Amino acid sequence: MVAAHEHPVAQRHQLLGVERRPLRGLTMLDDVGAQVLPVGRPGIEPASQLLTHPTDDARVERFRRLYDSAGVEADAAVAATAAARYRARYLEARRAVRGAAALLEQVKQRAAVAIVSNNLLEEQQEKLRFCGLDPFVDVLVVSGEIGISKPDPRIFELAVQRLGVPPGRAVFVDDFLKNVDAARAAGLVAVHFQNTPQVIADLRQLLG
User: Fold this and answer.
1) Measured between alpha carbons, how far is 179 from 173 in angstroms, rounded to an integer?
2) How far apart are CA 37 and CA 140, in angstroms?
3) pLDDT by residue (tens digit) across 17-29?
4) Do 105 and 137 reside in the same domain of the chain?
5) pLDDT (average), residues 167-186
6) Are residues 79 and 146 in the same domain?
7) Contacts by 182-185, CB closer than 8 A, 24 or more apart
8) Which domain, by its residues, includes 161?
9) CATH number at residue 195
10) End of a domain among 63, 93, 123?
11) Model pLDDT for residues 43-64, shown as the tens digit of each residue
12) Taking the model in full, what pTM does it have?
């Protein structure tokens, strides 16, 4: 399970396109985003109070809550403008982590690969195709489909179930430490992604 696209880098570029406000960084943006992704399947109780907004409305609501969390007054027009600028910069900045395809190709020789993402299913599928990584993915677990978001341990439990392996045989890689800690607490072997050489070294040690 690997975070193989440059999510924080894209977020930084996105935030440069948003009107300057005293917001508190990427972690808050990720947290708020997980709360407003549409729920695609009601069979699993959400970990947080997810909303059933259409996608564009969810993006606007994400920024409205973000501004509110930062104590900034922002009406619907401001939130909509921020969401549109953020989306435009995201599409400009997104790319695969350098070396991701080669790394996944090597991992696929030894293990199945799953992606666990706080996102919408269609967006994640399109992102993987755009980055050229979809051929390496065996299992895709997306919060917008199942109604559970990282770091809820149930999303990791569902991922290993779909992979058909016990938690202790799964290696989870993520760039957010809270997700790494949650996966480790759920019984997975977890690696904090900091840079590509570090992850390659960690995975080589783990996979042999």
Assistant:
1) 9
2) 16
3) 444 444 444 455 5
4) yes
5) 96
6) no
7) 182/150, 182/151, 182/152, 182/153, 182/156, 183/151, 183/153, 183/156, 185/153
8) 100-207
9) 3.40.50.1000
10) 93
11) 333 333 333 456 778 788 888 8
12) 0.71
